[in-house]
Amino acid sequence: MSKNTVSSARFRKVDVDEYDENKFVDEEDGGDGQAGPDEGEVDSCLRQYPWRNMTAALQAALKNPPINTKSQAVKALAAGGVGSIVRVLTARKTV
What we know:
This protein is an all-alpha fold. It is 42% helix and 0% strand. It has four helices and no strands. α1 (39-47) packs antiparallel against α2 (54-62). Its main location: cytoplasm.
């Protein structure tokens, strides 16, 4: 059996009884209003011929994901961003 010493009880400095789920306040959504990447910017990077800037197109497609949002509508609107990413990767493969 282990001995109950003073040093073994030092890690328990947090009083778990003070945390109440009824007092919990969720933080507001910190989104900036835009849902997903800018399709025009992705298209303009893909259409630059003959140098087709794939790196900039992929960065534009990955820009502004709906992180830290709880709104299902915002996430659904940003699902179109997946299509942009697939389009950039497909264009990269065809080069």
